[in-house]
Amino acid sequence: MSEIDSLKKENEDLRKFISLVLAEIELVERVGEIKQNFANSPDSERIITPIVDRILTIKEERHILQSHLDLK
User: What is the rounded distance in angstroms from the CA atom of residue 50 to the CA atom of residue 17?
Assistant: First the structure.
């Protein structure tokens, strides 16, 4: 792989990492809003569960990229 190709791949990975971080932040904020708006509601957990599952998936993907990019 040429140096340019390597830099392109690294740039692509960094952009994906940033997208994952932003998505995680947005979903965490949504969970907070749902908890506020549906306080003491049985629907709250039903709504939040798939979002929390997605947050965990994003964290796993982000961690893999973070390790690959040697970010701390």
Answer: 21
CA 48 to CA 43: how far, in whole Å?
Answer: 9
Q: Which tens digits make up the pLDDT trace of 11-36? A: 999 999 999 999 999 999 999 999 99
Q: For residue 62, give the nearest of 30, 27, 14 by alpha carbon.
A: 14
Q: Global pTM? A: 0.86
Which residues in 20-57 are b (16+ Cβ under 10 Å) and which e? beeebeeeeeebeebeeeeeeeeebeeebeeeeeebee
Q: In the structure encoding, which two tokens stand for residue 53, read together?
A: 């599952």
